[in-house]
Design a protein that fits this description.
Strand order of the largest sheet: 5-4-3-2-1-10-11-12
Number of strands: 12
Radius of gyration: 18 Å
Oligomer: single chain
Distance between the termini: 7 Å
Strand content: 15-25%
């Protein structure tokens, strides 16, 4: 056991306290699952500039050998999350798994390779129409299209009025998604078009079954993390303890209100992981 620079927070709920106790009692059966953007990496205006918090990899490397598994679950392509996270070739992270595109892609540190399906044709078609949709609604200026392979996203954080651009685009992009058999996933000033049947809850539940998890901690910050929260809540009802962590403030109240623990963004997540590693 090492020094503990930050004390472990006390979960606000009895289910959260039970889950933390289960993780501490049997860490070898615990899975630590984390979102990337907004959880391990700060939200930035240009998503291509997002990088993991400087303390994230050291914290994960200290924690990973003490638990059953660490999994990063993200809407990004798995390979992009690995690069932006700096996860490859790190001692201590030999068994890290990155589930990209909400679980449609998977990178394993053991092999260093990504397993991915063929792109959805609806994503290709919607991507071709996006510039015209943005232009038609006067929201092209300052918006940012993020190419995600299995999905495509429109960011409004750099627009002159980010919230107005987001509101103006939500219905047109929902219609575009419907025309091409996709779903629209809203987030923090981002609207993502992706195939149905892909979400973090499905990815998390399948992975936890695969590894036979006895407990789980899941940390996220945005609406796309709510399916994972729901999966943990379902596991609780089935007798598997789960701890829900909100990264950030009340910017996304739907996440904050359902969490057992709230921490101040990626720095808070790093502090939590570091404290957990110190006591295991």
């Amino acid at each position: 056991m090492g020094s503990q620079p930050h004390p472990l927070p006390t979960p606000a709920t009895s289910a959260g306290r039970e889950a933390l106790a289960a993780i501490l009692a049997a860490p070898e059966r615990a899975v630590i699952a984390l979102d990337f953007d907004g959880t391990l990496a700060e939200i930035v205006p240009d998503p291509e500039q997002a990088r993991a918090h400087a303390g994230a990899v050291p914290a994960l490397a200290a924690l990973a050998p003490k638990v059953a598994s660490v999994a990063v679950i993200t809407g990004r392509p798995a390979g992009v999350a690995v690069r932006y996270g700096g996860f490859a070739g790190v001692p201590g992270l030999e068994h890290l798994v990155v589930l990209g595109h909400y679980g449609a892609e998977r990178w394993d540190a053991v092999s260093g390779t990504v397993a991915a399906p063929a792109p959805h044709p609806g994503v290709t078609a919607a991507r071709a129409e996006l510039p015209g949709v943005l232009d038609a609604h006067g929201a092209w200026r300052g918006t940012w299209i993020e190419e995600k392979g299995q999905a495509v996203a429109v960011h409004t954080r750099r627009a002159t009025d980010p919230s107005a651009a987001y509101a103006a685009l939500r219905d047109p992009l929902a219609a575009l998604a419907t025309r091409h058999g996709l779903i629209l996933e809203p987030g923090r000033l981002v609207l993502e078009l992706r195939p149905p049947g892909m979400d973090k809850g499905v990815a998390l539940a399948e992975y936890l079954r695969e590894v036979g998890a006895g407990s789980v901690l899941y940390a996220g910050d945005d609406l796309g993390d709510l399916p994972a929260f729901a999966a943990v809540e379902k596991l609780r009802s089935d007798g598997v303890p789960g701890l829900l962590v909100c990264s950030g403030s009340t910017e996304v109240p739907e996440v904050w209100e359902r969490a057992d623990v709230a921490v101040p963004g990626p720095s808070g997540v790093v502090s939590l992981l570091t404290a957990l590693a110190a006591v295991l």
